[in-house]
Amino acid sequence: MFKKILAAFNGSEGSYKALKVAIEMAKLCNSELHVITVARIPEFAKIRDEYEEEKKKAAEYHQKFLNEASKIAAESGVTIQTHLEFGKPSEEIVKKAEEIKADLIVLGVETKHPFKRRFLGGTGDKVVDYSNCSVLVVK
Length: 139
Prior knowledge:
This protein has helices spanning 13-29, 48-75, 89-100, 114-120, 123-130; strands at residues 4-8, 32-39, 80-86, 104-108, 134-138. It is α/β, with parallel strands linked by helices. The chain has a five-stranded parallel beta sheet. The mean pLDDT is 89.
């Protein structure tokens, strides 16, 4: 059914739930599973040296999430391909899904303030709006 699945993982409670669902889906469908985390570089990093330093710090910090995702997947008997991108999460998730030709994006959302999230346009809402493939939103 789904040949390639892209799961968004950022260490939040919702992303842990989404990762577990994505792993089970990959096992059921015998799918290739990719996991993405997206780092944002502070906008104040104006000069090149500051930018590169902030990018390095962000990469080190976010790589921990991908290592954790790999560990969880391995414990479930699934091998994943990880991707660390920089930018706006919704844009990078959609871009990576197109790049790898994903059939499904799996992501988690925090449901504490659904009206506020929808009004302000949360990452999950934007991914649903702009992706060219199916999106499974896990709560």
